[in-house]
Every structure is written in structure tokens, then in C-alpha cells.
Design a protein that fits this description.
By secondary structure, this protein is of the alpha/beta class. It is built from four helices and four strands.
Amino acid sequence: MSTLPSHSCPLLVVTLNYRTSRLTIDCLRSLEAEVQAIPGSRVVVSDNASGDGSVEQIGQAITENHWGDWATLMPLDRNGGFAFGNNAPIRAALQSETKPDYVLLLNPDTVVRPGALKALLDFMNANPKVGIAGSRLETWTGRLSIQRFAFTRCLAKSTADCAWAW
């Protein structure tokens, strides 16, 4: 496990890999200019014990593309699921001397558009009462992709206390 550097970290991007090394490398490629535009930002790829050569492939890409000054690979010894894989690098960052101001969980099949990370940080900094923000999800053609989940039942004591998502 690598340690995070001891300078200021405005943004920690965590990408969880499980047998998706090509997608993860494409994601890292899209992050390169974005992270470099926000000095001190870091990316940690957490590998959930893929066992398919992902660790070697991602590590090689980080080395060959000279991404090591902003990207770190954290291979995990077991696949503990989504929360476990994301929490491992977050926990390490929060225990470091320079805790990140913000954490972004980014799926490995994400291609980050130019200016997206700066826009996210600008929004969060301008809205200090906001605790969480999400990204706009687009198709490969740039059209808005509507994703939703409808809760079909509520566990509250009364339906008046339910927050229905449609």
C-alpha cells in the first residue's frame, strides 16, 4: 500500500477496479489533465483482488504514462465489495497528515469531461452547506443519461415520512 504525499490535497479521487483494467486505464487517462489542473489532487485506484492481471496492467500504465506523481494503486488482499474497496483508500487518506478536502468516488468506466473536477470543486466551495454532490451522467454521444431507482416500499413508520424517488 502506498502512502499519500504530505502536501495539501484538495481532492481525492477513488476509483474501484474489479477486473476492468482497460476501463480503469481509460478513466485515468481522462483524469490526467483534470488532476494536474488542481494542484495537490490525487487519484487512488483500489483493486478489489481482481486476480486477472489488473494490478499489473494498471501499475504498468501508471509507470509508463508517468502518472505516479498523482495516481496510486492500492491492491487489496480480498474482495470485500463496493464499500470495502472504496473505504480502504479513503481511510488511508483520512489517517494521513494531509486529509483531502473532498473525496470523489468515480466508477472505472467513467470518462471525465474537461473542466468537470474544477466545476465540482467550485460548486462545493461555493456551497459550504452541501455535503454531497453527484455528476451529470452522459452517454458516449454527450446526451444526458437519465438513471434512477424507484423505491417500491418505505420502511418508515408512516408513508408521510417516506422520501419517494421516481
